[in-house]
Design goal:
Elements: E1 5-9, H1 16-31, E2 37-41, H2 47-54, E3 60-63, H3 80-85, E4 88-93, H4 96-101, H5 106-118, E5 122-127, H6 131-135, H7 139-154, E6 163-166, H8 180-195, H9 199-204, E7 206-210, H10 218-222, E8 229-232, H11 239-250
Parallel strand pairs: 1-2, 1-8, 2-3, 3-4, 4-5, 5-6, 6-7, 7-8
Protein backbone atom coordinates (compact mmCIF):
# COMPACT_ATOMS: atom_id res chain seq x y z
CA UNK A 1 0.00 0.00 0.00
CA UNK A 2 1.35 3.45 -0.91
CA UNK A 3 1.69 6.32 1.56
CA UNK A 4 -1.61 8.25 1.87
CA UNK A 5 -1.39 11.64 0.24
CA UNK A 6 -3.55 14.71 0.81
CA UNK A 7 -3.05 17.67 -1.51
CA UNK A 8 -4.59 21.10 -0.91
CA UNK A 9 -5.41 22.95 -4.12
CA UNK A 10 -6.07 26.52 -3.02
CA UNK A 11 -6.85 27.56 -6.61
CA UNK A 12 -6.96 31.39 -6.96
CA UNK A 13 -7.74 32.00 -3.30
CA UNK A 14 -5.86 33.48 -0.39
CA UNK A 15 -4.01 36.58 0.70
CA UNK A 16 -1.01 36.95 3.00
CA UNK A 17 -3.18 37.50 6.06
CA UNK A 18 -5.58 34.58 5.49
CA UNK A 19 -2.72 32.28 4.45
CA UNK A 20 -0.93 33.02 7.71
CA UNK A 21 -4.06 32.29 9.79
CA UNK A 22 -4.79 29.09 7.88
CA UNK A 23 -1.28 27.68 8.24
CA UNK A 24 -1.20 28.58 11.95
CA UNK A 25 -4.53 26.80 12.43
CA UNK A 26 -3.15 23.74 10.66
CA UNK A 27 0.14 23.64 12.55
CA UNK A 28 -0.90 20.97 15.05
CA UNK A 29 -1.89 18.72 12.16
CA UNK A 30 1.37 19.34 10.36
CA UNK A 31 3.52 18.67 13.40
CA UNK A 32 2.00 15.19 13.66
CA UNK A 33 2.05 14.38 9.98
CA UNK A 34 3.50 10.92 10.34
CA UNK A 35 2.31 8.17 8.00
CA UNK A 36 0.82 10.71 5.66
CA UNK A 37 2.16 13.01 2.97
CA UNK A 38 0.63 16.49 2.74
CA UNK A 39 1.09 19.08 0.01
CA UNK A 40 -0.19 22.65 -0.29
CA UNK A 41 -0.63 24.31 -3.67
CA UNK A 42 -1.01 28.09 -3.19
CA UNK A 43 -1.11 30.62 -6.04
CA UNK A 44 2.41 31.43 -7.34
CA UNK A 45 2.91 34.74 -5.47
CA UNK A 46 2.47 33.01 -2.11
CA UNK A 47 5.00 30.21 -2.62
CA UNK A 48 7.65 32.26 -0.85
CA UNK A 49 5.37 33.06 2.10
CA UNK A 50 4.26 29.44 2.44
CA UNK A 51 7.82 28.18 2.18
CA UNK A 52 8.75 30.37 5.14
CA UNK A 53 5.60 29.58 7.13
CA UNK A 54 5.91 25.82 6.65
CA UNK A 55 9.61 25.84 7.52
CA UNK A 56 10.79 22.31 8.18
CA UNK A 57 7.46 20.83 9.34
CA UNK A 58 7.51 18.24 6.57
CA UNK A 59 4.55 19.58 4.60
CA UNK A 60 5.48 19.98 0.97
CA UNK A 61 4.75 22.77 -1.46
CA UNK A 62 3.23 22.41 -4.88
CA UNK A 63 2.45 24.69 -7.82
CA UNK A 64 -0.85 24.77 -9.68
CA UNK A 65 0.66 25.12 -13.15
CA UNK A 66 3.93 25.59 -15.02
CA UNK A 67 5.28 26.41 -18.45
CA UNK A 68 6.24 23.68 -20.90
CA UNK A 69 9.36 25.76 -21.67
CA UNK A 70 12.61 25.94 -19.72
CA UNK A 71 13.17 29.71 -19.98
CA UNK A 72 13.03 32.65 -22.35
CA UNK A 73 10.49 34.87 -24.05
CA UNK A 74 7.30 33.42 -22.54
CA UNK A 75 5.64 36.43 -20.92
CA UNK A 76 3.55 35.54 -17.92
CA UNK A 77 4.82 31.99 -17.62
CA UNK A 78 6.66 30.26 -14.77
CA UNK A 79 9.21 27.51 -15.36
CA UNK A 80 9.80 24.26 -13.51
CA UNK A 81 13.28 25.46 -12.52
CA UNK A 82 11.76 28.52 -10.81
CA UNK A 83 9.34 26.31 -8.91
CA UNK A 84 12.18 24.05 -7.82
CA UNK A 85 14.02 27.11 -6.50
CA UNK A 86 11.05 27.82 -4.23
CA UNK A 87 11.13 24.27 -2.85
CA UNK A 88 8.12 22.99 -4.76
CA UNK A 89 7.90 19.25 -4.73
CA UNK A 90 4.81 18.82 -6.90
CA UNK A 91 3.14 20.51 -9.85
CA UNK A 92 -0.49 20.04 -10.90
CA UNK A 93 -0.75 19.37 -14.61
CA UNK A 94 -3.95 19.10 -16.58
CA UNK A 95 -6.37 20.27 -13.91
CA UNK A 96 -9.83 20.32 -15.50
CA UNK A 97 -10.10 24.08 -14.97
CA UNK A 98 -6.97 24.53 -17.09
CA UNK A 99 -8.18 22.05 -19.68
CA UNK A 100 -11.56 23.78 -19.91
CA UNK A 101 -10.91 27.49 -19.29
CA UNK A 102 -7.43 27.70 -20.83
CA UNK A 103 -8.01 25.10 -23.54
CA UNK A 104 -5.06 22.92 -22.57
CA UNK A 105 -5.02 19.86 -24.81
CA UNK A 106 -3.86 16.37 -23.85
CA UNK A 107 -0.63 17.05 -25.78
CA UNK A 108 0.04 20.32 -23.98
CA UNK A 109 -0.63 18.64 -20.65
CA UNK A 110 1.84 15.91 -21.61
CA UNK A 111 4.46 18.55 -22.45
CA UNK A 112 3.99 20.14 -19.03
CA UNK A 113 4.18 16.73 -17.39
CA UNK A 114 7.51 16.12 -19.14
CA UNK A 115 8.84 19.56 -18.13
CA UNK A 116 7.98 18.71 -14.52
CA UNK A 117 9.72 15.35 -14.67
CA UNK A 118 12.79 16.90 -16.34
CA UNK A 119 13.11 19.34 -13.42
CA UNK A 120 12.92 16.39 -10.99
CA UNK A 121 9.62 17.62 -9.60
CA UNK A 122 6.64 15.34 -9.12
CA UNK A 123 3.77 15.88 -11.56
CA UNK A 124 0.21 15.43 -10.30
CA UNK A 125 -1.59 14.49 -13.51
CA UNK A 126 -5.29 15.37 -13.25
CA UNK A 127 -7.66 13.27 -15.34
CA UNK A 128 -11.42 12.92 -15.40
CA UNK A 129 -14.57 12.86 -17.45
CA UNK A 130 -17.41 15.34 -17.82
CA UNK A 131 -20.96 14.41 -16.83
CA UNK A 132 -21.96 13.87 -20.45
CA UNK A 133 -18.99 11.61 -21.03
CA UNK A 134 -19.91 9.56 -17.96
CA UNK A 135 -23.53 9.31 -19.07
CA UNK A 136 -22.39 8.12 -22.47
CA UNK A 137 -20.21 5.41 -20.94
CA UNK A 138 -16.97 7.11 -21.96
CA UNK A 139 -15.34 7.48 -18.54
CA UNK A 140 -12.75 4.80 -19.09
CA UNK A 141 -11.79 5.83 -22.61
CA UNK A 142 -11.49 9.53 -21.66
CA UNK A 143 -9.32 8.85 -18.63
CA UNK A 144 -7.12 6.37 -20.47
CA UNK A 145 -6.63 8.73 -23.42
CA UNK A 146 -5.53 11.48 -21.04
CA UNK A 147 -2.96 9.11 -19.56
CA UNK A 148 -1.95 7.70 -22.94
CA UNK A 149 -0.97 11.19 -24.16
CA UNK A 150 1.57 11.34 -21.34
CA UNK A 151 2.79 7.80 -21.96
CA UNK A 152 3.36 8.70 -25.61
CA UNK A 153 5.66 11.48 -24.50
CA UNK A 154 7.53 10.11 -21.48
CA UNK A 155 6.95 6.37 -21.57
CA UNK A 156 6.01 4.52 -18.41
CA UNK A 157 9.15 5.79 -16.63
CA UNK A 158 7.50 9.22 -16.50
CA UNK A 159 5.15 7.73 -13.92
CA UNK A 160 7.90 6.40 -11.67
CA UNK A 161 7.78 9.62 -9.65
CA UNK A 162 4.29 10.92 -10.33
CA UNK A 163 0.81 11.16 -8.84
CA UNK A 164 -2.43 10.68 -10.74
CA UNK A 165 -5.48 12.59 -9.54
CA UNK A 166 -8.80 11.22 -10.74
CA UNK A 167 -11.14 14.18 -10.67
CA UNK A 168 -14.52 13.70 -12.35
CA UNK A 169 -15.27 17.14 -13.77
CA UNK A 170 -18.89 16.94 -12.60
CA UNK A 171 -17.74 16.59 -8.99
CA UNK A 172 -15.31 19.51 -8.85
CA UNK A 173 -16.63 22.39 -6.77
CA UNK A 174 -20.19 21.13 -7.15
CA UNK A 175 -20.71 19.46 -3.78
CA UNK A 176 -21.44 16.27 -5.68
CA UNK A 177 -18.92 13.50 -5.05
CA UNK A 178 -18.26 10.26 -6.89
CA UNK A 179 -19.37 7.36 -4.74
CA UNK A 180 -16.50 5.40 -3.19
CA UNK A 181 -17.35 2.55 -5.59
CA UNK A 182 -17.25 4.83 -8.64
CA UNK A 183 -13.89 6.24 -7.57
CA UNK A 184 -12.48 2.79 -6.83
CA UNK A 185 -13.58 1.46 -10.23
CA UNK A 186 -11.73 4.22 -12.11
CA UNK A 187 -8.65 4.05 -9.89
CA UNK A 188 -8.42 0.28 -10.29
CA UNK A 189 -8.79 0.68 -14.02
CA UNK A 190 -5.95 3.22 -14.17
CA UNK A 191 -3.67 0.92 -12.16
CA UNK A 192 -4.59 -2.04 -14.31
CA UNK A 193 -3.87 -0.05 -17.47
CA UNK A 194 -0.45 1.07 -16.20
CA UNK A 195 0.42 -2.46 -15.09
CA UNK A 196 0.39 -3.41 -18.76
CA UNK A 197 3.56 -1.30 -19.04
CA UNK A 198 5.15 -1.90 -15.63
CA UNK A 199 3.59 -3.73 -12.71
CA UNK A 200 6.12 -2.16 -10.36
CA UNK A 201 5.33 1.42 -11.38
CA UNK A 202 1.58 0.72 -11.46
CA UNK A 203 1.67 -0.56 -7.89
CA UNK A 204 3.77 2.32 -6.60
CA UNK A 205 2.02 5.25 -8.28
CA UNK A 206 -0.21 7.20 -5.91
CA UNK A 207 -3.72 7.66 -7.30
CA UNK A 208 -5.72 10.27 -5.40
CA UNK A 209 -9.37 11.24 -5.79
CA UNK A 210 -10.55 14.84 -6.19
CA UNK A 211 -13.98 16.41 -6.48
CA UNK A 212 -15.82 17.78 -3.43
CA UNK A 213 -13.76 15.80 -0.90
CA UNK A 214 -14.90 16.90 2.55
CA UNK A 215 -14.72 15.83 6.17
CA UNK A 216 -17.96 13.89 5.83
CA UNK A 217 -17.02 11.79 2.79
CA UNK A 218 -13.23 11.44 3.04
CA UNK A 219 -13.16 8.25 5.14
CA UNK A 220 -15.45 6.34 2.82
CA UNK A 221 -13.48 7.41 -0.25
CA UNK A 222 -10.08 6.72 1.30
CA UNK A 223 -11.17 3.29 2.54
CA UNK A 224 -11.19 2.07 -1.06
CA UNK A 225 -8.25 -0.11 -2.00
CA UNK A 226 -6.93 2.01 -4.86
CA UNK A 227 -7.79 5.45 -3.48
CA UNK A 228 -4.48 6.62 -2.02
CA UNK A 229 -5.69 10.00 -0.78
CA UNK A 230 -7.29 13.17 -2.04
CA UNK A 231 -6.83 16.37 -4.00
CA UNK A 232 -8.90 18.83 -2.00
CA UNK A 233 -10.10 22.21 -3.28
CA UNK A 234 -12.77 24.09 -1.32
CA UNK A 235 -12.41 22.09 1.90
CA UNK A 236 -8.67 22.81 2.04
CA UNK A 237 -9.41 26.48 2.74
CA UNK A 238 -11.10 25.58 6.01
CA UNK A 239 -8.67 24.41 8.69
CA UNK A 240 -11.17 22.21 10.54
CA UNK A 241 -12.37 20.45 7.40
CA UNK A 242 -8.85 19.96 6.08
CA UNK A 243 -7.61 18.51 9.37
CA UNK A 244 -10.46 15.97 9.31
CA UNK A 245 -9.67 15.02 5.72
CA UNK A 246 -6.02 14.49 6.67
CA UNK A 247 -7.07 12.39 9.66
CA UNK A 248 -9.24 10.22 7.42
CA UNK A 249 -6.20 9.62 5.19
CA UNK A 250 -3.97 8.85 8.16
CA UNK A 251 -6.47 6.28 9.47
CA UNK A 252 -6.22 4.49 6.15
CA UNK A 253 -2.78 3.13 7.06
P1 LIG B 1 -13.12 20.75 -4.90
O1 LIG B 1 -11.90 20.93 -5.93
O2 LIG B 1 -12.60 19.93 -3.74
O3 LIG B 1 -13.48 22.16 -4.49
O4 LIG B 1 -14.20 20.06 -5.64
C1 LIG B 1 -11.02 19.87 -6.20
C2 LIG B 1 -10.05 20.29 -7.27
O5 LIG B 1 -10.44 21.04 -8.18
O6 LIG B 1 -8.88 19.89 -7.26
Amino acid sequence: MTMPLVLANWKMNGNTNDNYKLVKALESQFSSNTNIEIGIFPPFPYLHQLRKLLGSCGVHLGAQNLSFAREGAFTGEVSARMLAEFNCRYVLVGHSERRKLFKESNDQVAEKFEATVNAELKPVLCVGETLTQRQQGETESVVISQIQAVLDRTGITGFSNAVIAYEPVWAIGTGETATPEQAQAVHANIRQFLSGFSAEIANAVQIVYGGSVKANNASALFSQKDVDGGLVGGASLNAGEFIEVCEAARCRT
